[in-house]
Write a structure and sequence with these properties.
Elements: H1 2-16, E1 28-30, E2 32-36, E3 44-50, E4 60-65, E5 70-75, E6 80-85, E7 89-100, E8 103-112, E9 117-123, E10 130-132, E11 145-150, E12 157-162, E13 169-176, E14 182-185, E15 190-191, E16 197-203, E17 208-213, E18 217-222, E19 232-236, E20 246-253, E21 259-265, E22 270-275, E23 282-288, E24 297-300, E25 312-316, E26 325-329, H2 330-337, H3 355-358
Parallel strand pairs: 1-23
Antiparallel strand pairs: 2-26, 3-4, 4-5, 5-6, 7-8, 8-9, 9-10, 11-12, 12-13, 13-14, 13-15, 16-17, 17-18, 18-19, 20-21, 21-22, 22-23, 24-25, 25-26
């Protein structure tokens, strides 16, 4: 609230003395077309798309709400299908065809900050509802951010999480414990980007992990558990209008390693877009009309329904109570910034995870 008041005062002063408005108020503005909300929510924080295996219009958005102490499952119309109690859910992610109990299941996982563990749920494609499948023993110590990673090399599934203060990011493997429950092995590594890191996303195709350091920018690491601990900062607070807190982060995949890294710049209510390929050139920024201080975000390139026929972007609105999630057409973002629409290349359920490497693309950094 203090930041918003300060912002209004600065804008007014600049207007009076003829200096114009803050950069965040200029440029590309897109509109949300659907709101995901229910009376029970308090502050939707992070979210992910789950893609239905046979009918994409039956896909869902799964959102964590630490203040409501719940996970919410929404259909694409914004109706709540399920609410799952959890003491303090953090960031949430999804992976497909996880081997469990002799079958392949889609899993949704998140870090619970209060119980200091990773929780894992299986999705029933018939009902779209979640059921808990972890062994209640994936204990991480203090955790804050979270993401999943599917290795193109081994096919194994990993999870990253770390504590809030001077975040040390740890990597765990998720496995079938032999009884049809998901257990955790690790941690294997300890990554130290410095500062607080909540937003995280893994690139399953190129084997990279991206971390949003709230006061510093975006860091990139190798995601494989056998890799070293060294990383590099690819986007820095203060450059191209990137302002702290840097939080929500997601990936739009295109062939040959192309695509976009989308990052929430909370300090000026923008989403920054960078080239997915190194050296990760800055491509532009957009704002969602009526949205400010957004935290979590996610994107899918697949044609979900007639409204989102070219994919969708979802983000949290951090300024308007009850801080609901908003769905935006990817086509509007792409058209406004001159970005590509590719609704056929990356289906995370069916894609050849090694396709970029097979095509000769290797991220050297």
């Amino acid at each position: 609230m203090a930041r918003s008041v300060f912002r209004v005062l600065v804008i007014g002063l600049m207007t009076v003395i003829g200096l114009g408005s803050l950069p965040a108020l200029a440029g590309v503005v897109v509109s949300a077309v659907r709101i995901l909300s229910t009376r029970e929510i308090a502050d939707e924080d992070d979210m992910c798309f789950w893609l239905h295996p046979t009918d994409l219009s039956r896909s869902t958005v799964i959102s964590s709400d630490k203040k409501a102490r719940s996970l919410f499952v929404y259909d694409l119309e914004g109706h709540v299908l399920q609410a799952i109690a959890s003491p303090e859910p953090g960031n949430v992610d999804v992976r497909y065809d996880f081997p469990l109990g002799g079958r392949k299941v889609d899993i949704v996982a998140f870090n619970d900050r209060e119980t200091q563990q990773i929780r894992v749920y299986a999705v029933d494609p018939a009902t779209r509802l979640l059921s808990r499948v972890d062994d209640d023993g994936i204990l991480t110590g203090k955790n804050y951010g979270f993401t999943l990673y599917r290795s193109a090399t081994s096919g194994r599934t990993y999870a990253f999480t770390g504590a809030k203060a001077e975040t040390v990011v740890q990597e765990w493997e998720l496995v079938d414990d032999g009884t049809g429950r998901v257990a955790g092995i690790g941690p294997f590594r300890h990554l130290r980007p410095g500062g607080v890191c909540e937003g995280m996303v893994s690139d399953d195709e190129t084997g990279k992990l991206y971390l949003s350091q709230e006061a510093g920018g975006v860091w990139k690491y190798d995601a494989e558990p056998t890799a070293g601990n060294a990383g590099s900062r690819i986007a820095t607070v203060g450059e191209h209008g990137l302002m702290q807190d840097v939080e929500g982060i997601t990936l739009y995949y295109r062939a040959g390693g192309a695509g976009y890294l989308i990052v929430s710049s909370q300090g000026n209510d923008e989403f920054k877009v960078y080239d997915r390929r190194p050296p990760h050139r800055y491509l532009g920024a957009f704002r969602v009309d009526g949205n400010a201080a957004s935290d979590g975000c996610d994107v899918t390139s697949l044609p979900l329904d007639s409204t989102f026929s070219s994919g969708a972007f979802v983000c949290r609105n951090g300024i308007a109570k009850p801080f609901a999630d908003q769905l935006v057409k990817w086509s509007e973002i792409a058209r406004s910034l001159g970005l590509a629409v590719d609704s056929t290349y990356w289906d995370p359920r069916r894609a050849n995870a090694a396709s970029a490497r097979t095509a000769g693309f290797v991220d050297p950094n």
